[in-house]
Design brief:
- This protein is of the alpha+beta class.
- The chain has 2 domains: about 25-195, Glycosyltransferase; about 205-305, Maltose phosphorylase, domain 3 (Sandwich), CATH 2.60.420.
- About 35% of the residues lie in helices and about 20% in strands.
- The chain is built from 8 helices and 8 strands; from the N terminus they run ααααααααββββββββ.
- It has helices at about 25-50, 50-75, 85-95, 100-115, 130-135, 140-150, 155-160, 195-205, and strands at about 205-210, 215-220, 230-235, 240-250, 260-275, 280, 285-290, 290-305.
- The strands form 2 sheets. Strands 1, 2, 3, 4, 5 and 8 form a 6-stranded mixed beta sheet that branches. A two-stranded antiparallel sheet has the order 6-7.
- Helix 1 (about 25-50) runs parallel beside helix 3 (about 85-95) and helix 3 (about 85-95) packs antiparallel against helix 4 (about 100-115).
- It is globular, with a radius of gyration of 21 Å.
- About 35% of the residues are buried.
């Protein structure tokens, strides 16, 4: 069947300056991945609206699409047709490999691809929003911290190192020698790669909505990299929600009992939060306590002996 125009993983790092759509991931693999995810969302929306008939219809379509995706893009050994960051990030984040072993293998493969690329970004417009979420989902938040803190192209901090104050349309809108990229589509103020801010807010800041409207909040910071403190806030319709965390370490015998991880939370009236406190580091990254439910007001947690990454 002839497909219409697809942008695919637009402007991935290896796309040539004069052909931004020539990505390393097949355009139809990207389109199929998003079609499956959008169908799932339609089913969820229909169910929440009380349209069980539509929810059942879309769930049936979703299941059929998953089967077709597997038949088209997944090899007998469980690998994807394109071994790229985008292909595996979409598969992991969108749950495109429902078999437990295939999903586990896909997660391990994604981490391997990222490490083999020296923790530099390998995604374009379609793959970047899913990358951090996928790695965190499989216990690879430390891998994403390693990506986030790179300063070579392609990376987010490369733009900062080149004196950028906004997020660019291309990873190399400005070349290392200071010249502007020769291709078209070279904006220096573009939203797509700035999608990383969602991961930063919810994982470094530890702050995200647990339900629409922020009446219930999810607070779950995941310290990593060389970051030793963070402050985040959101002005909801109920008031300001704020999270502050930091590591404290000193040699003073009087204050040494305060060495460890500190978490401070402020919730406005008529809100509640589910708080997950990081309690140390294990083989698979940050270990956490069991989530606790708290109401409005000020709350503080302290984990003695939990040292900075």
């Amino acid at each position: 069947m002839e497909a219409g125009r697809q942008f695919g993983d637009w402007l991935d790092p290896k796309s040539p300056p004069d052909d931004p759509g020539a990505a390393t991931t097949a355009v139809l693999l990207v389109a199929d991945s998003y079609l499956i995810r959008m169908t799932e969302l339609l089913a969820n929306i229909s169910q929440n609206l009380g349209r069980d008939d539509l929810a059942e219809k879309y769930r049936g379509q979703h299941d059929n699409l998953l089967t077709e995706f597997h038949n088209t893009w997944v090899s007998d050994d469980g690998s994807l047709a394109n071994e790229t960051q985008t292909a595996y990030a979409l598969a992991v984040n969108f749950g495109l490999l429902p078999e437990e072993q295939e999903a586990s293998d896909a997660g391990a493969k994604l981490r391997q691809i990222v490490a083999s690329n020296d923790y530099l970004v390998g995604t374009g417009f379609a793959g970047t929003p899913a990358l951090g979420a996928a790695l965190t989902k499989i216990g690879g938040a430390d891998d994403f911290y390693s990506m986030l803190l790179q300063t070579e192209v392609p990376s987010w901090l490369y733009q900062v190192a080149m004196n950028g104050t906004t997020t660019w349309e291309r990873w190399n809108s400005l070349e290392p020698n200071g010249s502007v990229n020769a291709g078209e589509m070279t904006s220096f103020n573009h939203y797509a790669f700035g999608s990383v801010s969602d991961w930063i807010h919810s994982n470094i800041g530890g702050l995200s909505p647990a339900e629409p409207g922020w009446k219930r909040v999810k607070i779950a910071p995941l310290p990593g990299g060389n970051i030793t403190s963070a402050n985040s806030k959101y002005i909801s319709r109920y008031g300001e929600v704020s999270v502050r965390w930091y590591f404290e370490s000193n040699e003073d015998a009087i204050t040494a009992h305060r060495n460890g991880f500190h978490l401070e939370v402020q919730l406005p009236p008529n809100t509640r939060a589910t708080v997950t406190v990081p309690s140390g580091r294990g083989d698979n990254g940050v270990e956490t306590s069991e989530p606790v439910d708290v109401g409005s007001g000020y709350h503080e947690w302290f984990v003695s002996g939990y040292k900075k990454p």
